[in-house]
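quick one before i forget lol
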Amino acid sequence: MKTGPKHGNILGIRLDSTRKEKLLSEIRSKLESKEKFYIVTPNPEIVLVATNDWLLRKTILRSSFSVPDGIGLKFAYKFLHNEDVEVIKGRELFLDILKIANEMNLRVYFMGGENNEAELAMNKLKNIYPKIAFKTYHKFPKYTLMGQPASENDKNLHRKIIGNIKLFEPDLIFVGLGCPKQEKWIYRNIYRMKFQSSAMVVGGTFKFIAGLSKLPPKWLASLGLEWLWRVIHEPKRIIRIWNAVLVFSVRIVIAKLFEHRFKS
């Protein structure tokens, strides 16, 4: 592959592909120049959701980096376009960015998570990245699927969170609210902040770091079977995994058939 970024799409949802080293170099450059940016990490499930969610689709389109996360996207892109796409796991990218933040003595805010997982993750990472100034909040509001506070109480708590973030003035905000809430939260809030804070979605990364969820063995992940690990350990995710593995695959095949029919 070329070393520069490649822009493409799956089912009309934007994806970027570049080597991890190049991506991290661009992120470092933006942090050094105080240029605001935000990163999304679409996987097959998120791509599927975005096809029927105009705001999520718009959020991904306008992101600074739309990083493919999930082996299913690699297979789908190859099938549709006969080209490779570089897949980078979001949780690994998160740790790589923290290394940069540590080298630069940056300020980092953890937004979201359940069961105090953001604070648990933060306390573990403080020892690994001692030059980072970390901050989070003890409680986060509930958000609707549109990324807005769900009730009046949640609106009040949301304002407290925004005030807490503004006082801290972080260089980076990592948002773990689950899709599509986290993407839309960033889209709605990041550019309203006058200081130069950038953001990235992290899904369930706080839970993994906190030790509340087990990572699959590397050999299983390398075979593209991380979804099977999640079915076994989190059976309540079965519908989401069904969509990401089976429904997504059917949509890809249909898209390819329509493409051939249109060309003929």
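fyi The mean pLDDT is 88.
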